[in-house]
Amino acid sequence: MQDKEFICGEKCPHYQKIDEVKKMEPNIEEIETLSNMFKLFADHTRLRIICSVLNTELCVCDLCELLDLNQSTVSHQLQILRNAKLVKFRREGKQIYYSLQDEHIEQIISTSLAHILEEEEQ
Amino acid sequence: MQDKEFICGEKCPHYQKIDEVKKMEPNIEEIETLSNMFKLFADHTRLRIICSVLNTELCVCDLCELLDLNQSTVSHQLQILRNAKLVKFRREGKQIYYSLQDEHIEQIISTSLAHILEEEEQ
DNA sequence: TTAACATATGAACATACATTCATATGAAAG
DNA sequence: CTTTCATATGAATGTATGTTCATATGTTAA
After folding, report:
1. Minimal Cα–Cα distance from B46 to chain A, Å?
2. N or C: which end of chain A has fewer CB within 10 A?
3. What is the pLDDT of residues B60-116, one digit of tens each?
4. How far away is chain B from the Cα of A79, in angstroms, using its nearest Cα?
């Protein structure tokens, strides 16, 4: 870490402001949970998968076809989404159908999408 | 890519469903923009910085002190946030004060935070 | 104009992780 | 019960990126 000597003078670290921010800020676990969630959305393959099952359920094969991806790639990413409990699945015969686990996700994605679309207009 | 031969049978790729999803889905540029935005939130250092300047402006030194981080680390991450136009800055003497560029961000973060807090309750 | 301070930046390094290949598992049909 | 199909998974590889060290830039005060 940084040696205190190097950090500004007496005025500069605005301790009062810092204290106020500290009170408001999410704690370490919340930051970790939140950044982990964003990490799931940060990969474009996973994001495409999530968007695909936003309103319907699809089997792995459908996802491969729809997104033009390797079956192994899709399964690996589905595994990650499953571990994070972002998607759920049910077996029907040989196929396994995936869908969103959590409706909150839909809201976060659509809110975010609305935002970037607004940005574009400006 | 995958050889079609390996993908399911005649029934399985549900082409009708796939077509419907294709119509709804964000296009490639939107997916890219969206995942890039999530990528910015996905790193816990950047997320902490963003949360810190959510309601106030802080100088680099304040962020180092508040987050107990190397000055170089903070500057590098601020650079990334600046390039993405997520934060703005103004110079006042020797110090440079950073704050949120875009109020949308505040909404996305707080919505997402609300969601993970709800999750915890269940 | 020199010294001290506040921040930025380039290079190097380590690590995380997305994709692919090969193969395993598990279900259904014959 | 063997084969085929649908999906899962382990290992290997390449790439992206976060952190650090060293140093540069730019500002103020003496």
Report:
1. 9
2. C
3. 999 999 999 999 999 999 999 999 999 999 999 999 999 999 888 998 998 899 888
4. 19
